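Handout, page 2. Input:
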Amino acid sequence: MEKILEAFGLCNAEFKIKEFGSGHINSTYLLESQSSEDKYILQKINVNVFKNPYIIAQNIGNTSDFLKRNHPEYLFIHQIQTKDKQDIFEHENEFWRLTQFIPNSYSINTLDNPEMAFDAAKAFGLLAKNLHGMDLGDLQPSIPGFHDLAWRYEQFEESLTAATEARKKKAKDEIDFCFANKNLVETYKNIVSDETYPIRMMHHDTKINNVLFDKTTNKSLAVCDLDTLMPGRIISDLGDMVRTSTSAESEESINFSEVKVREEYFEALVKGYVGELKSHLTASEKQSLIFAGPFMIYMQGLRFLADYLNNDIYYPVKYPEHNLNRAINQRVLLEDYYSKEVKFAEIIENIFLSN
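Output:
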């Protein structure tokens, strides 16, 4: 640790160092100065998930430069460079990066009211709004194919060829459901082949715990966890919010009767997100907003099911049917979304009719 901190111009003896946050991908540490109020976040990037950490650094760096030029007032978690002017310090095949700790901030893992859902969605919408017009020409995905539904469907099909008969039998209802909803893959293909559909700089991981709130006002301060900041489409960010923040039950829940899309939370999320962006949205983007939720819910269900059929090689599991139950959870959530889709379409339309 001494060598790592020294690379960033910090003295190891000056700081208390402790593990920080609830993330499961990267190793995250809080550095607290013992002689001042300085605090930093130090992270070791997980190269099993992010194969090329320099792509993360470039995506965040280009975004940071764009915001400094065009929206200097916007609170963005900029990378702190090493003494050698590098965004990442590579040491013994490990990759480290440093950012400022945002003072007076906190994060949450669950939503208790629609007002916070609105404010969180507004934070992600404001990020996308401020990045409108950014040149994405030389940027690459930090996780290739991350939200590529067509590819995820191919992975699901491949998992069927190698799965045991016992697992396929247990998962029959979920397999049938995935086949029956393949039309979502075709809709996705139409979107990505539409030349009028913009590619924007998107966060790609819009869970509620990736928003920092102000301890004094309880309003959103900044968006964090920027590893998946990369070119994409708005259905990714809005869809992930709908998938992760509208149900009172998480994707881990087996209380399937309570897995539902709460209308008031859906409305709050869409109002917060689209309210920031609507003046920049194209006609094709507006038409796709109703698809965002099903797109992400179906894709995550495919991923859980494929992993179950592959004998649980990707997602950590706590019991044999864990991934299967996660897939059931997402199927139930998608079915409930469909049952309310007319109402959701009205909510979206009314947002564009309002001033």
